[in-house]
Amino acid sequence: MSTVELERPRASNYKLRVIDCDIHPAMTSWTEVHPYLERQWIEHLTVYGSHLRHAFSEALSHPRMSPDAARIDAYPEEGGPPGSSLELMKKQHLDPNGIEVGMLIPLRWNPGSQRNLDLGVALTRAMNTWQVERWVKQEPRLRASVLIAQEDTVASVAEIDARGGDPNFTQILILPKTDEPLGRRRYWPIYEAAVRNNLPITIHVGGTNGHPSTGGGWTSYYMEEHHSVAQTMQAVVASLVFEGVLERFPELRVVIMEGGLGWVPSLNARMDKHWARLRSEVPHVKKPPSEYVREQVWFSTQPMEEPATSAELIDLFDRIGWDRLLFSTDYPHWDFDDPRYAFRANLTKAQREQLLYENARKFYRLD
Amino acid sequence: MARHVVATVDQIPLDQRLLVQVNGREIGIFNVGGEYFAVGNRCPHEGASLCKGRIVGLVEATGPGDYQYSRRGELLRCPWHGWEFDLRTGRSWCEPDRTKVRSYDLKVEPGGALIEGELRAETFQVTIDKQYVVLEV
Ligand code: FES
Question: Which residues form the Rieske domain (chain B) (predicted)?
């Protein structure tokens, strides 16, 4: 598309201050991780490739609304997938949107879901170093997430301990589609390591565990599947509560990332109701479930429900707790939220600042 | 309101578009099957550069598996969340009463008329034998 310029555009008069908790970086080519990967695994990938627990090994589990699930204006001119160009990320997102700190959440290759656990472990190590070298060291506004091969608990703990003291990392990334529900005891050493290293765990939509994408089976349409993020996250929260993780690790802080919000009050109410009647089954759960959620679980704002009235959204925030909400854009994905227009509600300046900046600053202890 | 000469007709081939800036406003001009439409570049949903979106038609169905595709090229789909806007009216397909993209009056006029008329073209040497796209902003 060509552009004719008849006059200079007016400079923007916004001054935004934002911490974006969900930015997806990509690789221009997979050879970008070769410097951080042992020879054995480079050869393994050349000969065998990677292998996830679903068909069409490296495909997404369902076709997305747009290729790469990306904003169609996010393809770098020089080629490569959306999210692979730091220059474009700065120009299109970090600079104009006032991003002071951005948390990286790399998703592709899905090391946590690799069938070959050792390959998964090698990939997490390589991709963790890649995040620091390729992104954080080049752009001081960015921070990395500790990727772990979540089905290999011992290796996950080792990786968390290895990265724990490194200020380039702000959180541990887990994908909710695990082999077993995340509250199961096989995963507990991961939570112990998180607490020991003072890092929150962030559970971001994704993973391929081989189970159908919804509780009701495989869907026909993307729109159908897109709703499954909410049910998946509800299962995760219920599991962390009822299996006793949040009771056992009171210092564990959990972020539910990209799972929507509207379901949070109803899940809390249902869990509390059932706990009042059935708690003899889970005597290790000592408080009403909503109290654990209120104290230990945070939620990212994208994808936000967009109810018809401003009052409904404000009511939802009241119920969840304004201090539990972390702003995220999901750049460069198609359902990206722009910090200037993301909240379709009449918020005060103080509320907006709290959501866009203050909560995350406190949560990630960025001072 | 003033009238601005923003392009020659042959700068916007059939089913193509041109992004122009007038008084600091970004405006997309679309040639839909030989008709021209102009809409603002800011998506009223969350502000994406709307005119970078894909040009699509209207998909409808009377039941699952029974698709009709019509109005080819008349809808513009936002590059972010995919809201569709009717290039003829500016209305969004999902919230037609509530959400519209700004649309502009636009005419195609011969160079002869423009030279004699009240207009000055900012970036063009207007000649008699060409057709020009004129925007009212
Ligand atoms: S910004 Fe255009 S559809 Fe959301």
Answer: 3-115
Going by C-beta distance under 8 Å and a sequence separation of 6 or more, which residues neighbour residue A287?
Answer: A247
In this prediction the ipTM stands at: 0.84
- The mean pLDDT of chain A is 93
Mean pLDDT within A35-43: 97
pLDDT digits (tens, 9 = 90+) for A217-229: 999 999 999 999 9
Contact A65 B82 (CB under 8 A): yes
Q: What is the pLDDT of residues B65-109, one digit of tens each?
A: 999 999 999 999 999 999 999 999 999 998 899 999 999 999 998
Task: Give the chain B residue whose CA is nearest to the CA of A332.
Answer: B80
Distances (CA, A) of A177 to A106, A161, A203, A214, A355: 16, 23, 10, 11, 28
- Which among B104, B124, B81, B88 has a CA at the least distance from the CA of A5? B124
Cα–Cα distance for residue pair A313/A290, rounded to 1 Å: 20
Sheet of B66-77, strand order? B54-63, B66-77, B84-86
User: Which residue owns the Cα nearest ligand 1 atom 1?
Assistant: B46
Q: Which residues' Cβ are closer than 6 Å to ligand 1?
A: B 43, 45-48, 78, 80-81, 83
Do A119 and A42 contact (CB within 8 A), yes or no? no
Q: Please give the span between the terminal C-alpha atoms of chain B, in angstroms, as a whole number.
A: 5
More confident residue, B63 or A63: B63
Cα–Cα distance measured from residue B18 to residue B35, given in angstroms and rounded to the nearest whole number: 14
